[in-house]
Amino acid sequence: MKPLHPLAVEFGRIECCAMERACRQEAHQSFIQNYLASVRMNDPESKVSVLLGIFHHTTHMAFMPNEVHRTFYAKLAAAGKAALEKPYEQILECGHKATEHWKAFDAVWTKMQPELLYN
């Protein structure tokens, strides 16, 4: 397998699942719609399917995030983690433990930080 570009980011199975689940949750819809509306004004190339639909049926993803990805995914991951305030060992409808999603949101948030570009 070829090495990834130094600016590329990888999301694993649980990170993709956690983000897909957060995209569907009612609690995040207001943020999602407001953010997407603001992005459409500034960047017509960004579409809902590119930002959100990518996680549906995805078990591994490697990509080079732009500023839209970084901001949106970091904020959605933070909101998703906050929604799982006390995750314990609850099993979610996807079959993963809530603690797995909690850790995945942490990983997504970390991967979306711009300072990683310079390390």
Key features of this structure:
51% helix, mainly alpha
Describe this structure in words.
This protein is mostly helical and 119 residues long. It is 51% helix and 5% strand. A two-stranded antiparallel ribbon has the order 1-2. Helix 1 packs across helix 4, helix 1 crosses helix 5 and helix 4 packs antiparallel against helix 5.
Concise description?
With 119 residues, the chain is mainly alpha-helical. The chain contains 5 helices and 2 strands. Strands 1-2 form a two-stranded antiparallel sheet.
The helix fraction, in percent, is 40-55%
Mean pLDDT: 86
How many helices does DSSP assign? Answer: 5
User: What order do the SSEs take from the amino end to the carboxyl end, as H and E?
Assistant: EHHHEHH
Assembly state (oligomeric): single chain
Class from helix and strand fractions: mainly alpha
For the secondary structure, the number of strands is 2
Write the topology of this structure.
Layout: E1 9-11, H1 13-24, H2 29-42, H3 48-51, E2 61-63, H4 67-83, H5 98-111
Antiparallel strand pairs: 1-2
Helix pairs in contact: 1-4, 1-5, 4-5
